[in-house]
Amino acid sequence: MSRLQHFGWFLARGFGPHGWGHPYLDWDYDWTRPDLYQQSARELEQAGFDFVLIEDAPSLGSERTIDLRVRHAFGGPKHDPLLLAPYLFQATRTLGVIPTVNPAAYLPYTAARQFATLQHLSGHRLGLNVVTDTGSARHFSDAPPLGHDAAYDRAEEWLSGIRALWQSWDDGALAADPASGVYADGSRMRAVRHRGGHFAFDGPLNALPFPSGEPVIASPGGSGRGLGFAGANSDIQLALAPLHEKSVREYRARIHDAAVAAGRAPSDIRIMFAIQPVLVSSAEEADRLVAASAAPDDATLVQVARKQSSDLETDLTALDLDAPLDLAVFGDHVSHGSIRRLTGDRDVATTPLRVHLTALAKLGRISDRTGFVGTAEEFADLVEELGEWGNDGILLWGDLHPVTLHRTRRARAGAASPRHPAARPDRRRTARHPPRVLTPPWWRRVRVRAHVRAHVTQRAASGCGRQPFV
């Protein structure tokens, strides 16, 4: 029997203009209003998803790249996902919501209080995707920008400080006893006094403790320091790596090693690989789509370069397509994972930029593991294969726009897809990691094949077979 898999949705463009530039987008909708996202959240919840993770970047980039980021809405504008979260909680009952947060943008005490408020408002369905985007730091301070690893050091100090504030109410501090008239016992609150390399603040926190556990922590990051941060701090790790057995097992082993080094068990963290499949009704149709993308023209490559320029905050359109890519063009703030998505496993020193862009433009078949175009059966085989390699779940990647809403209707998971709570063991009792309740009510798993079959059957009935799964 296949290993049960978690399913999450990565809202890849953040709280921004979803669907912009898609030729099949004919709806005149307002991406700034909550209705679109609330309906999307209900669809995902009904489909059996565990959570939606909302990407964010506060910055529009540098003067050199700002036009590339906004011209086609790849990198902005974006509104604050933390303020969208309450609307999604209101529209759903079990779906987890994980906004992206940057430690550079939030003072620890303010962050701890805001996140505690959302955790209570949501019925303990909040998660936090902690990122270290150093390019955004200039909007919040005139301090010199931190390097890649130093930004992770700041994030660890920030997260440690927030947790200290969350835990500043000891057991019994909240009495809420009508008979005695005592609401809280101040003698059971600990005075937090933090003086660190990046932050200074005092506690205790003026917000209630959590009866059902702290917010779930997620993180991306494929560098050694990023994987170390995930192993030490995260409950969910967003994985971007080639999906073959050796790569998947090695990636998971690195995170598990980091978890053990930090005094945690490997089972304390769920590793979820991001996938954007294109599901079609037949193998013949999949072959036709792949063949049509085999020789992208220069106009297509320029469009791919624009998208990558936004993600990498580096103008690739100004580079020679037929020359090798010099990695020195990327600043220290650029994510190693983002660079890896561009270059893949190819030799950067000898491979022309054109080849990297062509690889991104071309589609491949799920059946031979060259890409993600295929039938429902082939996609189910892929996910089951990942489960056999020890994978914990899949993060489907895409926008939320009206087309997506029609494409993502599924049969209710109840009878077709048995769902069970995922046992998430408590962390070891250590000074650094006191016990936490790590099984949020929204964390579930579904059986892969029944889930995918039900989804694609519904897609076929609504005539949406040729568009991406997400």
Automatic annotation (TrEMBL):
<dbReference type="InterPro" id="IPR016215">
    <property type="entry name" value="NTA_MOA"/>
</dbReference>
<feature type="binding site">
    <location>
        <position position="223"/>
    </location>
    <ligand>
        <name>FMN</name>
    </ligand>
</feature>
<feature type="binding site">
    <location>
        <position position="100"/>
    </location>
    <ligand>
        <name>FMN</name>
    </ligand>
</feature>
<dbReference type="GO" id="GO:0004497">
    <property type="term" value="F:monooxygenase activity"/>
</dbReference>
<feature type="domain" description="Luciferase-like">
    <location>
        <begin position="37"/>
        <end position="390"/>
    </location>
</feature>
<keyword id="KW-0288">FMN</keyword>
<keyword id="KW-0285">Flavoprotein</keyword>
<dbReference type="GO" id="GO:0016705">
    <property type="term" value="F:oxidoreductase activity, acting on paired donors, with incorporation or reduction of molecular oxygen"/>
</dbReference>
<protein>
    <submittedName>
        <fullName>Alkanesulfonate monooxygenase SsuD/methylene tetrahydromethanopterin reductase-like flavin-dependent oxidoreductase (Luciferase family)</fullName>
    </submittedName>
</protein>
<dbReference type="InterPro" id="IPR011251">
    <property type="entry name" value="Luciferase-like_dom"/>
</dbReference>
<keyword id="KW-0560">Oxidoreductase</keyword>
<dbReference type="Pfam" id="PF00296">
    <property type="entry name" value="Bac_luciferase"/>
</dbReference>
<feature type="region of interest" description="Disordered">
    <location>
        <begin position="409"/>
        <end position="436"/>
    </location>
</feature>
<feature type="binding site">
    <location>
        <position position="148"/>
    </location>
    <ligand>
        <name>FMN</name>
    </ligand>
</feature>
<feature type="binding site">
    <location>
        <position position="56"/>
    </location>
    <ligand>
        <name>FMN</name>
    </ligand>
</feature>
<dbReference type="InterPro" id="IPR051260">
    <property type="entry name" value="Diverse_substr_monoxygenases"/>
</dbReference>
<keyword id="KW-0503">Monooxygenase</keyword>
<feature type="compositionally biased region" description="Basic residues">
    <location>
        <begin position="426"/>
        <end position="435"/>
    </location>
</feature>
<dbReference type="InterPro" id="IPR036661">
    <property type="entry name" value="Luciferase-like_sf"/>
</dbReference>
<comment type="similarity">
    <text>Belongs to the NtaA/SnaA/DszA monooxygenase family.</text>
</comment>
<feature type="binding site">
    <location>
        <position position="152"/>
    </location>
    <ligand>
        <name>FMN</name>
    </ligand>
</feature>
